[in-house]
């Protein structure tokens, strides 16, 4: 199996931690980012300093043409793809459904749902034995919000992750006999910058009392589950979700 892994949204947070850990386990990592080239380069340099292989690729997974360009660039510069982590995801500021604009919904669904579908499509075209590929593994980032619903905060984001859960189940069954495993990870409250984009930078600490383990998680704790699902150690695991949420 090819050891080239593409991680969307890997310039910081869970994606960056996954890139570093995957590289330590032998993956050559394509580090995708949208805006922050410096942050992506920092991840690449950290991996190279540890003797690993990595390269940064700019692309917005909310734009189909960007996704096509991203996969072609990875083909050309890194070789045959063996893994994909659909990690890039966005939320918006706290809002009830009755105060939600069409533009907001469109952005969240386009990046979180359509982007994950379109990236998986490109990965399947390269990895499926039905298309002449050699197999591979896909991990989709869902969220505990898919089960909790995030009322009064961002039901739209939660619903986009509910769609990802269903996508994981369906795609896993569709390509199971073609050498591709598809799984999901549902992080709980994790210490990353995503909470600042929701207008509450300290959200993970503020809500820690709701977590049975009484603390937020780290990006590396989520990365551990993602990299395990990608690995041959999970060879008989497909169509499932791992909750990494401290019991929440
Ligand atoms: P984060 O810290 O906000 O990082 C998001 C990453 O995604 C950045 O690298 C960003 O790159 C990239 N990105 C954003 N929009 C993109 C786009 N349109 N195309 C390509 N890349 C894009 O997020 P995180 O907390 O690590 O979350 C990672 C995943 O876990 C997301 O799917 C999120 O929904 C999920 N999750 C997180 C938590 C949590 O508590 N943190 C909980 C549950 C689920 P730039 O900076 O270059 O734009």
General description of the model:
The protein has a single domain, classed as Rossmann fold (3-Layer(aba) Sandwich). It has helices at 13-24, 37-49, 64-78, 102-127, 145-148, 155-175, 194-197, 203-206, 219-230, and strands at residues 4-7, 28-33, 54-58, 81-86, 136-141, 180-187, 241-244. It has 248 residues and is α/β, with parallel strands linked by helices. The chain is globular, with a radius of gyration of 17 Å. It contains nine helices and seven strands. A seven-stranded parallel β-sheet has the order 3-2-1-4-5-6-7, sandwiched between helices. The model has no long low-confidence stretch (mean pLDDT 97). Helix 1 crosses helix 9 (219-230), helix 3 (64-78) runs parallel beside helix 4 and helix 4 runs parallel beside helix 6. Bound molecules: NADP nicotinamide-adenine-dinucleotide phosphate.
Describe the structure using short key phrases.
248 residues; alpha/beta; Rossmann fold; seven-stranded parallel beta sheet; 9 helices; 45% helix; binds NADP nicotinamide-adenine-dinucleotide phosphate
Question: Which value, in Å, is the CA radius of gyration?
Answer: 17 Å
Say which molecules are bound, naming each kind only once.
NADP nicotinamide-adenine-dinucleotide phosphate
Briefly, what CATH class? Alpha Beta
Number of strands: 7
Shape estimate = globular
Name the CATH superfamily classification. NAD(P)-binding Rossmann-like Domain
Give me the side-by-side strand order of the main sheet.
Answer: 3-2-1-4-5-6-7
Number of structural units classed as domains: 1
Q: What structural class results from the helix and strand content? A: alpha/beta
Task: Please state the oligomeric state of the protein chains shown.
Answer: single chain
Please, how many helices?
9
Q: What low-confidence regions span 5 or more consecutive residues with pLDDT below 50?
A: none
CA distance, first residue to last residue: 35 Å
Mean pLDDT: 97
Helix % is 40-55%
Might you state the CATH topology name? Rossmann fold
Could you say what the CATH architecture is? 3-Layer(aba) Sandwich
Share of β-strand residues: 15-25%
